[in-house]
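Quarterly update, task 2.4: flavin-adenine dinucleotide-bound model.
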Amino acid sequence: MVRSQSSERFDLAVVGAGIVGLATALAAARRGLRVVVMDRDAQANGASVRNFGFVTVTGQERGSMWERARRSREVWREVAAAASIPVVHTGVWWTVRRPESLSVLEAFLATDMAAGCRLLSRAEARRRCPQLSAPAMAAVLESTIELRVESRQAIPRIAAWLESAHGVTFMRSTTVSAIDMPSLYTSRGRVQAQRVAVCPGDDFTGLYAQRLSAYPLSRCKLQMLRLADPGFRLPGAIMSDLGLGRYRGFSELKAAASLKARLSVEQPDHIKHGVHLIVVQNADGSLVVGDSHQYAPTPDPFSHEAVDALILDEFRSALGLEPPPTIERWIGTYAAADDRPVLIDAPEAAVRVAIVTSGSGASTGFAIGEELATSLFDIGVAA
Ligand SMILES: Cc1cc2nc3c(=O)[nH]c(=O)nc-3n(C[C@H](O)[C@H](O)[C@H](O)COP(=O)(O)OP(=O)(O)OC[C@H]3O[C@@H](n4cnc5c(N)ncnc54)[C@H](O)[C@@H]3O)c2cc1C
């Protein structure tokens, strides 16, 4: 349903129909509120459909991000069941090749964040998945709590379900150019709402640009590949030594210092391009493989063959397999900041802006949506 110049006054207007906007709409709709979601694109096109669809708990930064991931994973389970979104696989295998990595895994297992995790010996991992035959594989940290959905399918289905089951109104191809509460000025007319959640992804140069320019925001570009079905099912998502140097739940452990030093000597090009390995599988058997990290205010839009080669090199080393043929390539971008994993700002009493600045919105978005709803509706706001 599309409305413009609506005479209806909504309880909440959400700008942005990525995972954070949809999560906020869900949290408000569950409170029985009237919600409208607006997005400038005709269908989802941002980071939320370009990602791995990997809902990661293990490895998230200790504290609020880990808590958000745990809560979001619960909501994903509920939403996937209600909106007929297949959970394509569960869990993650961190396969490691270096003794320094094993020390990191052992240190992690001694923390309270290791619930649902255990160490598999090389022999046990081989028994469980004989196709993973990297000669150098030393051990695997298995976590059973992660979920993986196919985002291209999941994001449209969440939106359709919000519309049909929760009565949320969607206005697509609608750019919001200004907010003057209680009015939002859009390319399709004026919309009125008591509260507004701006969830713009990595577009922080539009609404409230002057205010947001005070934060150290940048952008990160990632290269992604889809490979043909290797002919067997993965035991879960696959990650490797390089990920232990990037995911803060691991990289902030003391034991990670010597691993990071070794990686910078042995894999300097991977480190330079921010390459680490995530491999997930689709229902048709094909693999989504990435990624790289290039930071810039406006990253270039090009996919560099040399960077893809580094990703595939790590695939070869970690899985012990020749990569199947590449069938798709794409880039994605997300907002980045050195000083925080999520930016939640209140430019006006009845408005919140939420930007995930750590590339983890698929894993934490549902919890952030609930936080925004609480902040807008439970903490007194002058209407
Ligand atoms: C390649 C890649 C891989 C990733 N992998 C993972 C992963 O496996 N796990 C994980 O947890 N996270 C992952 N991430 C990060 C995750 O995808 C993002 O953190 C998350 O999608 C951000 O969601 P969002 O809703 O904030 O932004 P987006 O999905 O970018 O949505 C923002 C929306 O706002 C709209 N918009 C902006 N301004 C306006 C306006 N003025 N008017 C109307 N509409 C507007 C845009 O059109 C867009 O649709 C990955 C990201 C990328 C790029």
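Highlight for this quarter: The mean pLDDT is 95.
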